[in-house]
Design goal:
Chain A has 15 helices and 10 strands. Chain A is of the alpha/beta class and 322 residues long.
């Protein structure tokens, strides 16, 4: 656990100020088709249109913006299944900080290429055999770099929370907010914003059915560890929540739901056919559950967390279910 | 030629008032990748996110909103390679007007299905053998319906012009505006808005290289007719400009450029991979030329006219060039 305190909404607001002019203020999209089918009003926060294609830029840039001069010189190390890697690489490039990223060897080719494209040094590992956190800590120590973990860090959480802050600024009060859940950075940050800006709004996390450690943890009241789940939601193949993220999730989140891979494919197809958007499987988690659980008359926010899916992979996934 | 006068910017403003609350005010998207590659600033008006997936809703709804009580009762007839069909069907459904649509038998399956889904009656014809305008006029006469042509109608042109009106309201002055060109409804309407709101802005039409009747007409000073061109830009397979559209284009447009099918596929891939959007081949015309012609320092508006491409077709097109 970082020595820094678990963040609050003040930290989200400070992150928003640092991100102004750096992160896109992504659009909030509507769908009359979804609204007609559910009787609810859906508001989609399109982080698939964020810089580098996912919300992760928010947390990465915020964390690196908080580095002191010595940290900036020595550089940043990170481990990631994909989008955090690109986020750290891009933020480091913008801020002139050297970056080394540990990525799983089976991460989407597009994400590895994009990370290298942003100037990050990529070191590959086997996600089913090696412990990335141990590897990353060793790497950071050897090189004197600051390790920025993908979710369990106060500055990362505060940055991610700016997605819901913007959404709620645009929509006004919501009855429910559905957020994809991997390690909990996005969910915990967004829950801080929802609590402050829309106190009545119920916040739900949605994780892959194949790896419901978040749901288990939420119900058990302690962080449950699982093996790396096999799911198409490659951004949510986490083994456990973080200490900071769990502390916030326990306090601010209403419940954790799950979605199957088949539901994620259905949602991807819907976004492509009806909303003309590419959303990566992990980015579909929140909508996959929200469309099932929506009650007529509700105003429902849904975070689409990213759009980084190889076109070949996208085609393959939709083809299998078509 | 319709008995109505060729429209001006006042008609575009009147259309904008009718469309308020009916058409989406679509987002204007940016791309740092494009800006870095060209040295220009690009502003993408995303009509792929418009209702029914294309700008055509604007013109269709505006035209049907101008019907008198007798016309509303008798219904509307239309001919279209796709998006105009859906636009008329949806606008007719909203306004409670019966609609019959003549569509080419090889139109994208998604467009035919969507037109039927909006409650329109679809009559299919062979676009390479039959003259759709003759067929449509006969159909309208037999049924007492008002024929709304896809582009050469003052209310259609005025409606389409609201796309550039919104873009310029959002961006302020531009140096250049690139617009896809089929029959000229979108180009002429947008040129009216550009002239009024950004008098220094040069307006360019972009049509398929396989069917450059617009370019030929612009240079010859008279409407040139061609055979139906074979191009993946199925929304721009027109054989000639209209009398209203040509009158405006001659007066207000700087030049007409072309784009090859290969350039359209490149642009489709770019939008999907980097901007996470589905844009149909016709919708890529303006960008395909603009990225080639951009000068450093310019502020360039680009209309992405629609996103209605079958996923199977999309995959096939990208696969061939991959």
């Amino acid at each position: 656990m970082s020595a820094l305190a678990t963040p609050g909404f003040e930290d989200v607001k400070a992150a928003a100020a640092r991100l102004a002019g750096q992160a896109h203020r992504t659009p909030v999209m509507r769908s009359r088709t979804v609204d007609a089918a559910t009787g609810a009003q859906f508001f989609f926060k399109c982080e698939n249109f964020q810089r580098m294609g996912a919300f992760k830029f928010r947390g990465g840039f915020n964390a690196l913006s908080c580095f002191d001069a010595g940290q900036r010189r020595a550089g940043v190390a990170a481990f990631s299944s994909g989008n955090h890697a690109q986020a750290i690489a891009l933020a480091a490039q913008i801020l002139g900080i050297p970056a080394t990223i540990l990525m799983p060897a089976d991460a989407p080719a597009m994400k590895v290429a994009a990370t290298r494209g942003y100037g990050g040094e990529v070191v590959l590992y086997d996600r089913y055999k090696e412990d990335r956190e141990v590897l990353a800590r060793r790497l950071a120590e050897e090189r004197g770099m600051t390790l920025i973990p993908p979710y369990d860090h106060p500055h990362v959480i505060a940055g991610q929370g700016t997605a819901a802050l913007e959404l709620l600024e645009d929509t006004g009060p919501l009855d429910a907010l559905f957020v994809p859940l991997g390690g909990g950075g996005l969910l915990s940050g967004c829950a801080l914003s929802a609590r402050a800006l829309a106190p009545q709004c119920k916040v739900y996390g949605v994780e892959p059915a194949a790896g419901n450690d978040g749901q288990q943890s939420f119900r058990a009241g302690r962080i449950v560890h699982i093996d790396t789940p096999r799911t198409i939601a490659d951004g949510a193949q986490t083994q456990h929540l973080g200490e900071h993220t769990f502390a916030i999730i326990r306090r601010e989140v209403e419940d954790i739901h799950t979605a199957t891979d088949a539901e994620l494919v259905d949602a991807m197809r819907f976004f492509a056919e009806r909303m003309k958007m590419l959303v990566e499987p992990t980015g579909c988690l929140a909508f996959a559950a929200a469309r099932r659980l929506a009650q007529p008359g509700q105003r429902i926010g849904v975070i689409l967390s990213g759009g980084n899916v190889d076109l070949q992979r996208f085609t393959q996934l939709l083809g299998q279910a078509g």
